[in-house]
Every structure is written in C-alpha cells, then in structure tokens.
C-alpha cells in the first residue's frame, strides 16, 4: 500500500506540537470504547430513551452507559430531556448540533476503517 497523500505545507516543530495537542484533546473527549458508538446511535435515532439506547449498543452496561452519557452531556454532545409532566417521568437523550459537527470525522474514520480492513484481508491472504 502506498501513501498518495501529498502534504501541502511542511509541518514545523511548533505545528507538530499544536497538532498533537489538538488530537490529544479530541481523543480525550470522544475517545474510549463507547463514546463514538453512543454519538452515532443518537444521531441515527434522534430522541431515544436510556434502555433503547442500551439495547442499540451491544455489550455496554447500564453503569458505563450512564457515566458515558454524563461525560458527553458535560462536553455538549448530548442533551438530556426530562418529561416530568408524564407519569412515569420519561427521560430521553438527543444529540446536539455540536455533536453533529463530528459527522465528517465519523465518516472519515468509517471510510478509513473499511479501507484498513480490506488492506489487512488482502495482505493476510
């Protein structure tokens, strides 16, 4: 596999440090096993209740999902909506406009993942 991407400008030591810092910040916020999966499910389903969200993400425990949702809410990716006027009280989670700014990143990761899997299969066999 050859790299066909051409860098338009030379990255300086300071630029490299800035890029590394920015990537580190992004990974801190959306990294881990579950955060991007949660964001993707929320973007695909719109308003969704906790149990339905858990069913859509195989293997995640209620405790982990709860903690991840709190982190995502603190960072502006998820909005928790409580419908207290209903009995029983209904709580829904929705993706925010800010979380939708991740769509190009998610699509790029998806495309890269597909290419990587294809390259691994071709090289392995």
Automatic annotation (TrEMBL):
Gene3D superfamilies (UniProt xref): Winged helix-like DNA-binding domain superfamily/Winged helix DNA-binding domain (1.10.10.10)
Molecular functions (GO terms): DNA binding
PROSITE patterns per UniProt: HTH_HXLR
Domain HTH hxlR-type residues, every copy: 16-121
UniProt cross-references to SUPFAM superfamilies, sorted A to Z: Winged helix' DNA-binding domain
Pfam name, any one: HxlR
InterPro entries, per the entry: HTH_HxlR, WH-like_DNA-bd_sf, WH_DNA-bd_sf
Keyword list, A-Z: DNA-binding, Transcription, Transcription regulation
Annotated PANTHER family: TRANSCRIPTIONAL REGULATOR, TRANSCRIPTIONAL REGULATOR, MARR FAMILY
UniProt name for this protein: DNA-binding transcriptional regulator, HxlR family
